[in-house]
Amino acid sequence: MASPYRDALIASAQRIGADPLDLATVISYETGGTFNPSIRGGAGNRHIGLIQFGIPEQQRYGASQGQSFEEQLPAVEGYLKDRGYQPGMGLLDLYSTINAGRPGRYGASDAGNGGAPGTVADKVNSQMGAHRTKAAAFLGGDFTPTMPAGTNDAPAAAPFGFRPPQGSNDAPATPTAPAPDDTADIAAILRTLMPRQQEQPAASAPEPAAPVPAPMPEPPAAPRFDASRAFALMPATARRRA
Where are the domains of the chain? Predict the structure, then answer.
């Protein structure tokens, strides 16, 4: 696709608050990977265009087989807004709105009206992988898209973070075996540098015995009482009384 188509789709996605990769994915799915606004499908080939408008929707939103890609995007926007799509909704609700008429109808199926077998959730989870890749190429990206696992989770890659496409002959990178770990065993080196411990520690010398305290000296004997000496020392008055 030429860059004007890409720019028109991104601008359209911004106006309705959708991820450009999600919008490109559902358009690729509905057009069989062609992004052709004039493609026909459904029961009796009555549906046309980027999201396979039915006859009432063609008349209401002005979608016609002779429109260009850019001319038909406003019809896509008008349909999604009228049917309840809200800014920020993910791929599952975006496709539910297109395929089942409103968000949240994940178990609905249009197989009875000529659509592909499977529910909305089946188609998003199991049938859109290749179209996700086509959408990335349409937008100029080279990343590997991630399909949501039945939820409205945003895709892992940022919608505007595309890199220039790689050449088709680029070979995928071959995983290499991890290099052997040649880190030195520091613990082993330290063990060789440290002296070996003895098998048994040397017997320690016995501690000296505590000194025996010296015996307490005997108190001196009290002197014998000398009555005559004591009498002689008494004053004369005391002796006369005695």
Answer: 3-138
